[in-house]
Specification:
By secondary structure, the chain is α/β, with parallel strands linked by helices. It has seven helices and 15 strands. It is elongated and about 65 Å long.
Length: 234
């Protein structure tokens, strides 16, 4: 199932896009769950990274599509944004928010199909990755587990050390250990859960990651950690 949100204040245009999505789904044997919102403000107010594709009108009353896209990008770097617009002038700005592209009104099906096909292919490729949602500074963000190097317990919080920086969220660490154990993560110490794909070497009582980080391995966790590491290699 691919989740799509149409953000369009013209009901007629929104219904046209819904029909196009249904038509695309039938011809390409894809299933879509489609939601319609009337304004960019409706999109950003309760955004929880719940959509795979957003079809976003640029000119709307309360919050235009470009402003909404900028807000969304701060919370979700992965969602695919396609602008629906009346003028190319506005659409060109979409590259600043990493939009996949734009379709000009009145929207012809053949152009919609070509762009929507690229979007669904990206979604399917991304769905092969494992993502987790975490609350950071009162915002819900989505993190690709492939980019998480290790997770560290700090009092009541945990720090997710990722390729693009660190994210602090509420603990406990055990919740992340249980969630990520099936996806190549293992606990080497009461304070650390490591993504085994980033392990470069084990020396004495330390594990070295590919980014140069050295973390301790506790005696209590070493046997289990080494078994998980060996299983991952095999």
């Amino acid at each position: 199932m691919i989740n799509v949100c149409i953000v369009e204040d013209e009901v007629e245009q929104a219904n046209l896009l819904k029909n196009y999505i249904e038509q695309y789904g039938k011809s390409h044997k894809e299933e879509f769950d489609t939601e319609h919102l009337l304004d960019g403000l409706d999109l950003v107010e309760d955004y929880k990274s719940q959509y795979d594709i957003i079809l976003l009108d640029i000119q709307m009353k309360h919050m235009d599509g470009m402003a909404a896209a900028e807000r969304i990008r701060k919370m979700d770097s992965d969602v695919i944004i396609i602008f629906i617009t009346s003028t190319v002038q506005y659409a060109v700005q979409g590259y600043a928010v990493d939009a996949l592209g734009y379709v000009l009104k009145p929207v012809p099906y053949n152009q919609f199909e070509q762009l929507f096909d690229k979007a669904t292919q990206r979604v399917r490729a991304r769905q092969n990755h494992v993502y987790i949602k975490v609350s950071v500074d009162d915002k819900q963000i989505k993190l690709d587990c492939n980019n998480i190097h290790f997770i560290e317990s700090q009092r009541n919080n945990v720090v997710l050390h990722c390729s693009d920086g660190d994210y602090v969220t509420q603990g406990p660490l055990k919740k992340f250990e249980e969630m990520l154990a099936p996806h190549g993560f293992s606990k080497c110490h009461n304070a650390y859960v490591i993504n085994l794909s980033f392990v470069e070497a084990i020396k004495k009582e330390e594990v070295f990651l590919t980014d140069g980080t050295a973390l301790p391995i506790s005696r209590a966790k070493k046997k289990e950690f080494m078994a998980a590491l060996t299983e991952g290699i095999l």
